[in-house]
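Schema walk-through. Below, the input block comes first and the output block second. Nothing else is stored per chain. Lengths vary across the set, and this one has 210 residues.
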Amino acid sequence: MGRIVAGGLRLPVDGPTARQVGRATGAAVVVLVVSPPAALAVVGLTWLRVARRHLRLRAEARRAVERSLPDAVDLFLLCTTGGMSLPLSHPAVARRLDGPVGRALVEADRRAAAGTPRGDALVAALQPLGDRAAALGRVLADHLRYGVPLGPSLDRLGLELRIDRRRRSEEAARKVPVRLLGPLVACTLPAFALLTVVPLLVASLQRLPT
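--- output ---
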């Protein structure tokens, strides 16, 4: 099992791509005897497929963190305002979160139970998930190490995450017309030609002298 690193984000990759490349290389060796250009095409297409798969996994991992991180901040803030200490709220929040952030919090709680200082465990577990997750880890660690009030820091971090989420939503909304342009043209132009241009051509051909 390999790992993808994308902007500080680490994601396990099921099924190592070495097998895919090995199969492609074997096929290329067989094809090489018949046609060297075809062998090069096989290897190039395989590497292109692997690269696209890695890009897709990186994008999915980044979106998973972006989805669950605001929920983690809100849950920590809810526990804090409810009077729970961080050593008690940490495992409670970890159990209720899915995705990379939830797994990182579970791992941090496991390390803390094994004797690692909880602040160090949180920073080490959240750091690989990107800058925003690392910021959450530092906020929690500063509270445990130095007694920094947790509520204001979580409020500020939650506001930043909500602004980021709103900006991403606006960017996605702006991309919708561009994405719809292809299907719209592909569906509208043939129908327009069939309903308008073709009848005119047929009528013109019928009026031609024989």
